[in-house]
Design goal:
Length: about 300
């Protein structure tokens, strides 16, 4: 069995009523997801609102997750900040916590040349020399794509063991698998094409909507493994319909996802941090529909 495979929900930011990190809620969410059978957790990424949190807040979140999840599931910590020094500090901390891997997007805002991006990633990796490194490719938000020449350059670093691929062309997964080699891990990123990603070669998925319906993604993953592609497709269609409905809300998707967890699992995770928009009153029917659709899909497929 490969070290990294299966379903890794992207962990949500957990706040109290004052908008501060809620360590108790972090531990509760980690425990909830572990209990539902996920293979790992992806902490501190986009779903964790990382770009709106301080270095100390991100450390506190990872500490709380590890308190609950250590030894139960694999943990990948996203450590990128928009400067190298803070990113290296988070990488050192993540290794000290005992995570299974660290991950990083490229630097954002300034469009840096490939050599600068490679230097940024290798500097981060050097701060956690005993920990695997996962490249996070999300060109639609980062503003720069993981090209094959840059990818080949990064493969010179022996700690680079995987890619979280959130680019929309699913064939990118095949490219990274081909050049990365048999033992190289590629995670599918876009939730709406999880099954397509797995069929073209992804070892698993990391997704922002997984935490509200992990059972469905686990079932889809198992169906692909078993060669039951019709069942996998049908589950993917149900998952996509739920995502499309949640995206109709006026509030930011992460605020909607947290409300779905509150209603279905009884766990309050707070709202989102400004400038992200929280849910508004008009989002109530969207949230209710999402809860109903998840329950219906679980009855149908599990």
């Amino acid at each position: 069995m490969k070290k990294f495979q299966g379903i890794y929900p992207a962990f949500y930011a957990c706040y109290d009523e004052e908008g501060k990190i809620n360590v108790k809620a972090v531990k509760s969410l980690a425990g909830l997801l572990v209990s539902k059978g996920v293979q790992g957790l992806y902490v501190g990424g986009s779903s964790g609102e990382c770009i709106y949190q301080s270095v100390e807040e991100r450390k506190a979140v990872l500490n709380a997750v590890m308190d609950e999840a250590r030894g139960k599931v694999r943990v990948i910590a996203h450590v990128a900040c928009n400067n190298t020094a803070d990113s290296m500090e988070l990488a050192r901390h993540a290794e000290q916590c005992g995570v299974d891997a660290i991950a990083s997007i490229p630097p954002i805002y300034f469009h840096l040349p490939p050599d600068s991006i490679a230097a940024y990633w290798n500097d981060i990796s050097s701060a956690a020399p005993n920990t695997d490194f996962i490249i996070y490719n999300i060109p639609q938000l980062a503003g720069v794509a993981l090209t094959i020449p840059l990818f080949k350059k990064m493969l010179e670093n022996p700690r680079v063991r995987g890619v979280k691929n959130s680019s929309m062309p699913v064939q990118d997964i095949q490219m990274f698998k081909m050049y990365g080699g048999e033992d190289f891990t590629v995670f599918n990123g876009p939730d709406e094409q999880f099954v397509a990603g797995r069929l073209i070669g992804a070892d698993g998925g990391i997704g922002g909507t997984y935490a509200v319906m992990p059972e469905l993604l686990i079932a889809a993953d198992e169906a692909v493994t078993e060669g039951r592609n019709g069942r996998a497709r049908d589950i993917q269609y149900a998952v996509d319909a739920i995502i499309y409905r949640m995206c109709e809300a006026k509030g930011n998707l992460y605020s909607v996802l947290k409300e779905v967890i509150r209603k279905r699992d009884g766990l309050y995770l707070g709202s989102v941090r400004r400038p992200l928009q929280g849910c508004v009153k008009e989002d109530g029917p969207v949230i209710d529909d999402a809860c109903r659709m998840i329950d219906e899909a679980l009855r149908k497929f599990l």
